[in-house]
Design a protein that fits this description.
The protein is mainly beta. It is 5% helix and 42% strand. The chain is built from one helix and eleven strands, in the order E-E-E-H-E-E-E-E-E-E-E-E. It has one helix at residues 28-34; strands spanning 2-5, 12-15, 22-25, 39-45, 49-52, 57-63, 66-71, 77-82, 87-91, 103-107, 123-124. A hairpin with a 6-residue loop joins strand 1 and strand 2. The longest helix has 7 residues, at 28-34. The chain starts with a strand and ends in a 5-residue tail after the last strand.
Length: 129
């Protein structure tokens, strides 16, 4: 079981099974939502994700059909969900445990912060592919 939580501890989760490959997203909405150069994310099947404290979550539709879920108290981004999918987009900064997932690339580098240089052998994609 892989565990995670928000900064204040009001929202916790458990993942049964593996976490998908890791992608670093440089889109404007991820940068603004996280206050950072990029957001590290991975896919988790809905069936493997158990959330506690869901009543403490707020949500925001950051782009059509994509809703971000975050702790209303401390602001920690927990996950995002796209309409019509059977997985969540887990915000890896909320993990409490280590995972064995591997980084596979950077996406939306066309919107990358100009003050950050990617210094990585990972594949870079101008958009989400």
């Amino acid at each position: 079981m892989i565990k995670g939580s928000c900064l204040c501890g009001n929202v916790t989760y458990e993942i049964s099974g593996e976490v998908g490959d890791i992608v670093h997203c440089h889109c404007v909405t991820c940068r603004k939502a996280h206050g950072a150069a990029f957001s590290s994310v991975a896919s988790v099947p809905l069936a493997n994700f158990r959330l506690s404290g869901a009543g403490e979550l707020s949500q925001f539709e950051s782009s059509p059909g994509k809703v971000r879920h975050f702790c209303a108290n401390c602001g920690t981004q927990i996950y995002a969900k796209r309409e019509g999918t059977q997985h969540i987009i887990l915000r890896l900064g909320s993990l409490d445990d280590d995972i064995s997932s591997k980084e596979i690339g950077h996406i939306w580098t066309s919107q990358k912060a100009n003050w950050y240089e990617i210094n990585s052998p990972l594949l870079e994609h101008l958009e989400f592919e």
